[in-house]
Amino acid sequence: MIPKAIPMEIRHIVFLLIFFILYVIFGGIVFMLLEWPDEQIKRKEIGLLLNEFTEHIKRLNHTQFTEEKFRLIIHELLMAQDNNLIDSYGNQQPFINWSFINSFFFAITVITTIGYGHLTPRTIMGKFFCIIYALFGIPITSLLIGSVADRFSKLYSPKKLPRGLKRTAPKYQRQLSARFLMLRRGLISLVPWFFTFLVVPAWIFRYLEGWSFLDGFYYCFITLSTIGFGDYVVAGGFEKNYIWIYKIIIVFWIIFGLAYLSMILNFITNAIRSRRISNVMNSLRVKINSNGSLVARMRRNQNDDDDHHHHCHLNHHQYQRQQQQFPSPRFINNNYLINDDYSSYKQRPNSSIFNNFESEHLKHGQKSTMHLFHKIMRPTTSLPELSECMVRTQQVATITIV
């Protein structure tokens, strides 16, 4: 039971770590049950093959011992050596490859994507289970490593603004300072990671594994970068009393080393990404400043056209009100017109074609004006289209009113 006094983030990491360990133990047990019987069968076959090879060597003049059979025996012995069933001298290895501790460590290399390759499943069920186990185990490991990396990053994240930079400073200055601060903290965090997870383990492996310091350093980096060539593997060729403690310490070293390296890479990646975004924003700011006068002119022209259209619209309404108050003379036939009080009349000029054209043109002008007005009010209209609409509206309104 996790105490409630512990912060939620720490409790979350502890829960993930416990679940991760249980998942690895489960994988180790299953891999051992699937691969250990097949290993025992292979050991018996290699034992019989070694005895047969020894007997044939003692009787070199035996006619049944052909060159093809000799090559086949050599091939089988080399394969047995690759599978850690015999050593380079042809002696059978005393330890079991698929013991629980080795299966446990193999499960770690699977779900952390290190994959040394020194131990691989041989059975069909073992290969199938390895695929399913990795599909669920890799996301669990990524979640655990990400949580630990976030916790590490908070230890290096700035609690306040850099010295000498006030909150009233321009936004781009604060972003620039935060970017350099992030990059600086990422580089600073490299130092403890370098010594804690690379240098110190390299010296330890020098004494426990018999490697040189360079080989130990090489193994540490290849492991924590998840490259995992498999040419060097800790505790891969011996059984000792402290093997459990040794490999459990290796497991925690891998988990926290991967999390710390992930934090460093996130610092560097965020700094590079922030710099790229700031470069884009600066280029946009330069373009906006250079085109500011053009945009301002276009907006002024648009406002002038809007005022002119509004003025024409008001004149049209005023004309309609005047027509309602003071109606124009009405035609009683095609040749004469008369006032409303029938006080006077005069002959209509020969302009019936002109009057019909004037009436139709007025209707068409009103429709065109409203169509252009709706197009102007549309938010998707671009500035060039807006300017063209303004000019056309001015022309139509002028002809209509006149």
From TrEMBL:
It comes from Dermatophagoides farinae (American house dust mite). It is found in: Membrane. This is Acid-sensitive two pore domain k+ channel dtask-6-like protein. Residues 95-153, 194-273 form the Potassium channel domain. GO terms for molecular function: outward rectifier potassium channel activity; potassium ion leak channel activity. The keyword Transmembrane helix applies. It is a multi-pass membrane protein. The chain crosses the membrane at residues 12-34, 95-116, 128-149, 186-205, 217-238, 244-268. GO terms for cellular component: plasma membrane. Belongs to the two pore domain potassium channel (TC 1.A.1.8) family. One of its GO terms (biological process) is stabilization of membrane potential. Its main location: membrane. Keywords: Ion channel, Ion transport, Membrane, Transmembrane, Transmembrane helix, Transport. InterPro entries: 2pore_dom_K_chnl (IPR003280), K_chnl_dom (IPR013099).
